[in-house]
Amino acid sequence: MSLNLVESFADFKDNKNINKEKLQALLEDVFRSMLKKKYGSDDNFDIIINSDRGDLEIWRNREIVEDGAVEDENTQIAYSEAIKIEEDFEVGEEVSEPIDIEKFGRRNILSLRQNLVARIMDLEKDDIYQHYSERVGEIVAGEVYQVWKREVLLLDDDGVELILPKSEQIQKDYFKKGDTIRAVVAKVEMRNNNLRVILSRTAPDFLERLFEQEVPEVMDGLITIKNIVREPGERAKVAVESYDDRIDPVGACVGMKGQRIHGIVRELHNENIDVINYTNNVSLYITRALSPAKISSITVNEEDKTADVFLSPDQVSLAIGKGGHNIRLASKLTGYQIDVYRENDDNEDVDLEEFADEIDGWILDELKAVGCDTAKSVLELSVEDLVKRTDLEEETVMEVFRILEEEFK
């Protein structure tokens, strides 16, 4: 039972990549706890661990006293007992004798072994915690081991468990067992002595690390990423800056024929990535952030952090973007609340599709079905005429008129 005790933990150390010195200190500490429990004190014991040979020795040191003068059997030994060990011992000298681990009894040895396992597991957790705490914000790769409804369990090359919660997955992500996933380390936490390494594919840090991997100039510091905002799986905006006038930061990030940015887009399931030049000029920065829309004019209030942007009608939908992604991300990127306004002249008409953010699609379809494709073509008809020719109620038609008339005020 005791013969392979240390050897088995030496193997455990090799498998778990635990430092030899830490393991020896841990072994000694656990054995000393057992000695204190059995003898009341461990001060007079020497523990010798030889991890190379895989063995352990425990020696108890006791003072030789006259027969009948023993007050503490743990620290003192009678002269008659001492000379049985070695004949030329004298009173006052110290006797060292080995303690056989088997004398502790089966129950104590099993308890010791369980204690060692628990302590070594804690040591391993501490090492993993330290390792991954230093890697927060870095990309790691893991193999999918288990897929659950709320999270995916991955294993790294050392068999460490990594967690990718559903909330940190891109909406289009689909994983199955055996897949290799790349993600950024979001945080490392300890819950009720359970270690959890949390990964993320939705964090801006993940996109930034991908740029570092795909764009050497970013990795080398020649191009700086000033800010990143994302709506994962849909759209992202990245503001970049170069301190070398010879380097075009946007061109370098996109690459020849878009080859650099394409690798990142594929990783993010075709997330639309806008790379723009950073500038301290707020008006210009907002203008670039609203790309691909072309702005007619802009009024910036730096005190309130707001900006009024005026565009021709055909550019409004581009500025807002599908689902409002473009204007929301532009606001986050610049730190300004951006309001978009249509800019019209008296003779200009507006396509009904430009009102899709204010009028429901089925209403627009009803108007188009009777040949009304523009705002003025609707306003040229009367409310009564539209009610007769469509399935729209009078209140709905009047609300449509109100919205369209506002456009030309």
UniProtKB/TrEMBL annotation:
GO biological process, one term: DNA-templated transcription termination
Pfam hit, one: NusA_N
GO molecular function, one term: DNA-binding transcription factor activity
Cellular component GO terms held in the UniProt record: cytosol
Keywords associated with the record: Cytoplasm, RNA-binding, Transcription, Transcription antitermination, Transcription regulation, Transcription termination
Domain S1 motif positions: 137-202
Function: Participates in both transcription termination and antitermination.
Protein family per UniProt: Belongs to the NusA family.
PANTHER family named among the record's database cross-references: TRANSCRIPTION TERMINATION FACTOR NUSA, TRANSCRIPTION TERMINATION_ANTITERMINATION PROTEIN NUSA
Assembly and binders: Monomer. Binds directly to the core enzyme of the DNA-dependent RNA polymerase and to nascent RNA.
UniProt protein name: Transcription termination/antitermination protein NusA
